[in-house]
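Many introductory courses stop at the sequence. We go one step further.
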Amino acid sequence: MTSGVTRRSAMAGACLLAVASQSLAQARRSPPRRVISLFPCIDAILLRVADPDQIAGLSALSHEAEVASTAREAQAYPSVRDDAESLLARRPDLVVVSRYTAGPTLRALSRSGVATLVINPQLSVTESLDQVRKVAAAVGHAERGDALANRITEAVLRAAPQPGRAPVPALVFQTGGFVAGTGTLIDDMLRRTGFENLAPRYGVRDFADLSLERLVSDPPSLLLAAAPRPGAPNWGDRVLRHPALLALKGRMRIESFPQSLLLCGGPVLLQTAPRLAQIRRRMEAPA
């Protein structure tokens, strides 16, 4: 894993709001020529709004299909880690950083005069759209950010249920028993696409672990189970084949959901929204 960024922190904080510092906005009058991102959620945006020759490197996590929905596209670019020496060797003039970025890296970038784009957690679709626009503006393509944000808005609206439909109760169960609670981007997406997030029923706010025992003792009617890339078995796969869960057939429905669509907003929502709507329609269909 990267220094300062664990897979868990990528999940908990993987859905992030990019905000340019005032000094960056004042200092930069021309678009950056070599941009590096350390975070897969920002990588997904850069791949949509930056010129290909502007991207000098993308995060190591964005090259992993289990984590990033854009892993195939990311292969065309160098994989970078939170390491000052390797970052500076790529001669960036803009690097995306956050609270997860190692202190020595931040200090080295500052001493070398490399501009940074600071990112903070995004907790809603609205913040995600703002993120898209600000990242696009930072790389000199504000109009592309507006166009992408409009596409995302339309996709989310198309995925909304018919007026008057009761929300479908559901619980999102990610790898390792990690559950997304209220006040998170996936919680907002569930609400917008016709679901009720059951995480509060289990005492989960933000992100937290949920034991298999608790799940079995009080099963939800729908479990959205995060799945890695096809053919890649992991802890979550083994748990979901557990006899105790299989015995709940008839009381709990399990729907597989790509894990890579649960971690980020931005252009990833173009895939997340219709997938959630598809599952909701299946749940609403007569038995």
